[in-house]
Write a structure and sequence with these properties.
The structure holds two protein chains of two kinds. Chain A is mostly helical. In chain A, about 75% of the residues lie in helices and about 0% in strands. Chain A has helices at about 1-5, 20-25, 25-40, 50-65, 65-100, 100-115, 125-130, 135-160, 160-170, 175-210, 220-225, 230-260. The chains are: A mainly alpha, B alpha/beta.
Chain lengths: ~260, ~270
Amino acid sequence: MSLALSLPEAAPPRSVRWPRWPVALLLPALLLAAWQIASQRGWIAPGILPAPGEVWLTLRELWESGDLASHAAWSMGRVVQGFLLGAAGGLLLGTAMALSPRFEAYVRPSFLAIAQVPVIGWVPLLMLPLGIEEVLKLVILTKAALVPVTLNTRDGLRAVPQRWVEVALAFRYSRAQLLRHVVLPAAVPPVFTGLRYGLTSCWKALVAVELLASSEGLGYLLVWGRQMFQMDLVIAGILVIAAIGFAFDAVLARIEARLQRWRAA
Amino acid sequence: MTLQQDRSGWLTARGVGKRFAIAGREVRALAGLDLDIASGEFIAILGASGCGKSTLLRLFAGLETPDEGEVRHAGARISGPSLARGIVFQEHRLFPWLTVAQNVEAALLNAPGSKPAKRQTATELIALVGLSGFEGAYPHQLSGGMAQRAAIARGLVNRPDTLLLDEPFGALDALTRAHLQRELRRIWQRQRTTTLLVTHDVDEALLLGERVVVMTPRPGRIARIFALPPELPRDHADPDFARLRGKILATLDAGPAVPAAGLTEHAA
């Protein structure tokens, strides 16, 4: 920006931006305070909602015993595998749909119909042929990532503005040049939106699958805690799941910003 | 005038008609249009919005094909875009993911020459439009006027023999517009690239054009062509300038009532 600011013709400076993270922490801090007060005054039975301090202790124990790391590693490993497969498939499928109207005519309606059934809806059906082990989870997670990545990739590639396509035509770009130099760079933002949705939906599906059928992973931690009536464990698990999901999304957002340095700040 | 006639027929339209379907209704954008542009000439096409002037430019660019008649460039029928005809649109249409230099070089993708040679050419054109020092800037860092300069550099970088400008200053503020109009005239005087400028601004047409083609809508056709005297001062305060301006405005207002007169003058 400093470059443009020194110019007589340049755009006016943007208004000063305050860092946003302190504001973002306000709501969690209020909730935490309400939770603390509610448990101190005994408004809620500790068996249903344990005090924040107790959950914190549980978290520390989980961390020190290594249980947390091992469960989180299982979950993250599954998500990374499922996401990579689903995202790769989604990028290919979405690109094929965007480029070939014929392929799209054959595939898209069925794809949309399959996409309408939530991830969990497939579990009872898939359990019979696939069992309840890792293959089932991988298939479910792949599907969870595949759907948003496919749809956003397809829409992003299709929505490249005609005004840029005309520029490419005026400079006699071939179809391959148009794709490589115009369509793909222009589609980076929507494709990344799809990838971020895909990863989020993968992570959510993972916890659901682990709740149903698993003997390790963060979802399993929740089930086990409930069965043992250890609500502190359940809440600790939820917090870890939220934190990891948040971190996943933040990493992708970072990569996205890096790929789009040309965008207005 | 003799010189101009010798160079005539560089860009031609013969009996050109073009129809569009808009909301299910057929609209005749152009009908029976003839035009002859000489090599090295600066011609301004003037008309209200919807008179088909942009369609005419897009036909010359090869971005549209005529439904009737034909358009030719250097004798050859225009069937698609060519690097010999540069184009600048109303919006700058720079690729936002490329820097100024990369945007200008993007126009050279299918041009002959080595990569360093292309970079050199791009640098020269960026200097020509007064953007030296901003080669590495992204479009969002530029003001509207600077972005349009970059677009002009991109339109000229293939050293086209013909430059097509579709209301290139329409979206700019008055000061920037006046400045860029002078710059464009300077560039044309130096390079003598055949230039076709589409505009709805009478003053712009009079400031820049050697001839002003006035078009009227429904269907788009040429109402009259004004050849400006070479000695005409390009100055709003000049009485001759003001008189011509009045005549052109009257032609625009009169609409399709005077095409016969226009055609005679054109033929003569």
